[in-house]
Design brief:
two-stranded antiparallel sheet; Rossmann fold; binds flavin mononucleotide; alpha/beta; five-stranded parallel sheet
Length: about 190
Amino acid sequence: MKVLIINGSPRKQGNISKMLDLIGKEVEACGAEVSTLRVNDLEIHPCMGCMSCRDKLQCCLPEDDAQRALKQIVEADALVIGAPCYWGNMPGQLKLLFDRIVYGMMGENSREIPVPLHKGKKAVVVSTCTTPYPFNIFFNQSRGVVRALKEILKWSGFKMVATLEKAGTKRHPALTKREETRCRKIAYRLI
Ligand SMILES: Cc1cc2nc3c(=O)[nH]c(=O)nc-3n(C[C@H](O)[C@H](O)[C@H](O)COP(=O)(O)O)c2cc1C
């Protein structure tokens, strides 16, 4: 089984990176093949919005890391996506990646109804934000990230099997033992 971790945080020692690391190690210990994409290391040209990819099933732009990342997503059996909350949503670089690869995530039938291209695959989402609990949920902070990613994953056919939101990171910057245990347990939802 191939698991692809997509790290949407630019912070290598941040909570997202730590949570993804814990999940990845546990999944690996279960025998899965794990690879990681750090979106801030990727060079991705912004989407031009021409929509030609919807018919041609390929991007009109010269190949860059977006197409290479899509290849990894296609080959993966499951995704683990980590994204800190930036303005109530995922960071721009992660959104940029998904904007560029729509054609490889979701197709359309003759009535222009979306056709998911990754049906049957599982996904996990983890998020962080400084807004404390329960306002991270009421005010759609980390919950805004989860919702936005759920939208992409749902239309692409992924089943979101678990989510983890770490709120209040300003006051509580370190992962608690409970959160670490949760990360390890989440890994088993993917296998
Ligand atoms: C550009 C930017 C925008 C942010 N926007 C929000 C926000 O809307 N709500 C919030 O609660 N935290 C916001 N934050 C704080 C991050 O979500 C928070 O620091 C998070 O813990 C970072 O996680 P990481 O260290 O795992 O990357 C923002 C941070 C940055 C850099």
